[in-house]
Amino acid sequence: DAGVIQSPRHEVTEMGQEVTLRCKPISGHNSLFWYRQTMMRGLELLIYFNNNVPIDDSGMPEDRFSAKMPNASFSTLKIQPSEPRDSAVYFCASKQTGTSYEQYFGPGTRLTVT
Amino acid sequence: EDQVTQSPEALRLQEGESSSLNCSYTVSGLRGLFWYRQDPGKGPEFLFTLYSAGEEKEKERLKATLTKKESFLHITAPKPEDSATYLCAVQAHGGTASKLTFGTGTRLQVTL
Across the interface, do A91 and B43 touch by the CB < 8 Å criterion? Predict the structure, then answer.
């Protein structure tokens, strides 16, 4: 299996622009998670989906952030408008619902907002 | 609120010098404690899951143990390739049961 796939790997954008991050989970996994990692706060859960349905979005920092999962093999995280404080590495992770609880992470998208 | 504290923040070892990393946690009811390894520029890589106090798991030079308040990641005779950041996370029963709360990690450097 190719693992969790994220694109782009790096994104540099100007303040105020819209940013869209993409994720393809591992085939057969029905839970998907979006995290943000910074030096100051470490890894923080933003939102997660079970069977394409958002379950907990309490970690989404504000209305500028939105996430969708239109089908089992694709999810997006959108920031509109972007701000410099959004600069971080964004990870997508997936797992199977059931007896195993471990999540498998993608390589991340490094976002820089200038 | 679930909390995870890892210590030390950074650790430098010589090759072959064994040591332990600590993960202290506060959680309403522990469903699982997870250890991940993260290399620079990469996503966290799953290592172990521990479910109950007294449980131990091993993988090569790594052994993870669990008590009711903390977990240790023991590294025996480390090699330079063990250099990475090690992350600990907890998952609680109930509520949003899939949510993981991560610590900020221990950066391990193993030198020749």
Answer: yes
Question: What is the side-by-side strand order in the sheet with A74-79?
Answer: A5-7, A19-24, A74-79, A65-71
Q: B98 vs A50: CB contact, 8 Å cut-off?
A: yes
The count of other CB atoms within 10 Å of the CB of residue A97 is 13
The string of pLDDT tens digits covering residues A38-57 is 988 899 999 999 999 999 89
Q: What is the mean pLDDT of residues A15-21?
A: 97
Instruction: Look at residue B96 in the predicted model and tell me its pLDDT.
Output: 57
Cβ distance A93 to B43 less than 8 Å, yes or no, reads: yes
With a CB cutoff of 8 Å and minimum separation 6, the contacts of A2 are none
Sign (positive/negative) of CA torsion B65, B61, A38, A104? negative
Please tell me the predicted confidence (pLDDT) of residue A97.
Answer: 74
Q: How far apart are CA B70 and CA B16, in angstroms?
A: 25
Distance of CA A41 to CAs A16, A38, A91, B73, B112, Å? 23, 5, 14, 22, 32
Nearest CB to B46; choose among A58, A102, A107? A102
Q: With residue A69 as reference, give the H or E element that holds it.
A: strand A65-71
Smallest CA–CA distance, residue B36 to chain A, in Å, is: 10
According to the model, what pLDDT value does residue B1 have?
83
Residue in B closest to A37 by C-alpha: B104
